[in-house]
Amino acid sequence: MSHDGAFVLEPEADTRLVGTRRFDAPRELVFRAWTEPALLMRWMDTPRMPMSRAELELRAGGRMRYEWRGADGSQIGLSGAVAEVDAPRRLVHLEVFDEDWTGGEVEVTTTFDARGDQTAVTMTMRYRSREARDAVQRSPMAEGMAICFDKLERLLPTIRASVTPFLAFASGAEEALALYTAVFEDARVLRESRAPDGALFIATIELQGQRLTLMNGGPGFQFSTGISLCVSCETQAEVDAYWARLGEGGEHGRCGWLQDRFGVSWQIVPRALPRLLESPEAGVSRRVMGAMLTMQKLDVATLEAAARGA
Predict the structure, then answer these.
(1) Does domain 225-310 match CATH 3.10.180.10?
(2) Second-level CATH architecture of 162-222
(3) What pLDDT is attached to residue 118?
């Protein structure tokens, strides 16, 4: 791992190349930039070959398609499939270029290691043969990847949340702080301010890369269902866990909505839902919306069955 943030690409035993790069941003933010197509379009290219298409279904078995087009009309295309997702820690996918110059399908395992406020990214690329691996190492690929990652480093500060939700509790901010930091893995308390008697006055926390400020404001403050915090979940197990833990002592509503015991509203939403609702296939969005409207806790299998018309 480079200590100055530079990209390093080195061969390993058998048929692997390993690339490492450190980014000055939290892991959740780096993972987001790595997996959201709109953000990929802003960094995964070079001046001579801008990215023209980025499609990624972030689920096991999901499809991916990337394209780059030069000013001279030249084009590079890459297709593949997601094999494993453990957000925001690990992503495994298979890829092959349209003009296959890498000797067949390549398995790419990308890990995101939190190092305080920084993230160490390791990409392990397994090729079909040592000869293919060596040919890639001799190519300009490392230079192109370094350009992309430098561009990503410059992009990351611009996509940090610049608007921070400010939650003013009538009382109970201390208890809410304890609940939220227990429920969300990798939650961090960034700063606290306390009264002389030790009681919490205000605190800023970070949940999955999103900053929230909590304050004990007094009896004049109440929460409304008109504002909610949306939690995007990769799996049904995540939906189940957040639904149970955040809703404990509160109230479960419809369509993935709940109020926690402090009155704060949350939406617990699987990432599959917006993907299905945005499907261009005739009838899919209508069927998925109809299924969702019958639910309290959202169920991925039922939504996907509705999308298929089952």
Answers:
(1) yes
(2) Roll (3.10)
(3) 92
